[in-house]
Structure formats: structure tokens, C-alpha cells
Amino acid sequence: CGLDAIDEKTFGWMGGQLIVLLAPSSGGKSVQLLNWANYAHRFQQKNVLYFSFEMDLWQCMLRHLSLAYQIPYSSLKGMGLTPDELTGLVARLKLADGGAYFEYDVSLEDPTPEYVDSRIRELIQTKGKPDLVVIDYMGNMTTRNSRRDAKPWERQGDAFEKLHVLAKRYQVPFLTAQQINRDTIRENRKRKEDKKAAQYWQDAASGDQRLMHLAHFVIGLEPHKDESMVSYHPVKMRDAWFA
Predict the structure, then answer these.
(1) H or E segment and range at residue 67
(2) Of 3-7, 29-33, 70-74, 182-186, minimum mean pLDDT range
(3) What angle do CA 14, 20, 24 make, to 5 degrees?
(4) Helix, strand, or coil (residue 226)
(5) Which of 17, 53, 86, 208 could bridge to 140 as Cys pair (CB 3.0-4.6 Å)?
(6) Which of 60, 176, 58, 59 is nearest to 113 (CA)?
């Protein structure tokens, strides 16, 4: 993933694994997912299939350029780039990476594992199998056959279960994110101080418990915006751990 302290313990993201990033609302989930995808593409020449079920293509490409060229996102937004100029810059970025592709998919109409599966099959037939699939993010996902009366968090659980199957089927790492509940974090930190709770990050993960059960690695992201830094928390680490 490009973070040495994590890579040394995990050997990176491996085929068949589901890796989940936990962060609060506006806590940097999309930026971190794109950062890891950009690292895999630019520095490891990996084929990346990137689904954004939250941001449109314009926002994705601006953030990608910001990360790749170390230009502040706010500066890029103020440059008044035309769609053709932006597309051209991203195309040049892709050409510089040894032939590996970086495919965006911003289909907001069908945020389902079934759609993800269809896009992987399509790429296998045309450009080759992706080496990494990124999905931003679980909170917006559902399935095509969830129960009609299912709660939103149950639909997310159904989707995560199917993504787990796809990761195993194609032997590709799937990287996604889920939101945490700030109130639950605060409450459980108090309980932890009273020695009544041990894993407040796990308790505070939004959605269905299948996410925590099926994921290979779950990493918490805690932003400290005043200090321009973040803390990473090892929430669930199979055969691995980091400080």
C-alpha cells in the first residue's frame, strides 16, 4: 500500500483479501483509497479498477491529479480546467505508467456487487484482469436481490458478503471503506476508560457485522486536521499487527 509500517507486517494487499478502511464522515476515506490506488498504479504498474459510488468523474480525476503531481486539491479546483484539458492531463498520467490501466467507474445508478462483477468480466475480455479493485464506499452499496424490507445496513452486509465472494473468485484484493459513528466512538472510549470495553473501533463500525467478520484487514483512520496528519489504528489484522 506504500505505508512501510503497514506493508512490513501485511506483505501488502494480496489476492482474495477484502481490506476495509474505517473513518468518520469527511475523515479522508476517499483520499486514502485513491492514494493507495495511485501508489499501486504508478509505482507498482498494477491494473486498477476504481469504483466511485459517491464522487463524480470530475472530482475523482481532480483528486487523482492532486495526488500524482503533489498539487493542492484546492488549487486545482480554482484553475478553471476545461473537461478536455482535465481528461488530457489524466491520459498523460496513465501513459506514463508502463501500460497498466487505471479505470474509473462512477456509475451511481447501480452500486451493486453484480455491477462490479460485470465490469471485471468486461475488462478481462478487453484490457486484462484488474490487479486491484477499489470501491468507494460500502455505505452507498446494496444488492439487486436484497429483501425489499431490508434495512440499509442489512443491504450493505449483503453487498459485502457478495464482494467477499468476488475477491475469492478472481483472486484480486478488494479495497473499500466504511463510515464510523462518532457518537459510538465517544461513548465506547468512556467505557474503555472504565475498563468495560476493549475494541471501540470495532463496535463503532457502521453497518452489518458481516463487514468485520469477512474482512481480512480493517484499518481505522483518525484525522488530526489541525496537525495535518492522521493516525492509523489496527482494528482487525489477521496474522499481522502494527503500532
Answers:
(1) helix 57-69
(2) 182-186
(3) 155
(4) helix
(5) 53
(6) 176
Type of residue at 99: G
Report the SS3 class of residue 44.
helix
* Strand partners of residue 128: none
Q: Which amino acid is at 9?
A: K
% helix / strand / coil in the chain, to the nearest 5? 45, 20, 35
Tell me the C-alpha distance between 206 and 138, whole Å.
10
> Which residue reads 481532480 in cell numbers?
62
The three cell numbers of residue 108 are 451511481
Angstrom CA distances, 237 to 8, 11, 144, stand at: 13, 12, 31
Classified as helix, coil or strand, 22 is strand
| Structure confidence at residue 122 as a pLDDT band (50, 70, 90) | very high
pLDDT of residue 5: 87
Bridging pattern class, strands 229-237 and 217-224: antiparallel
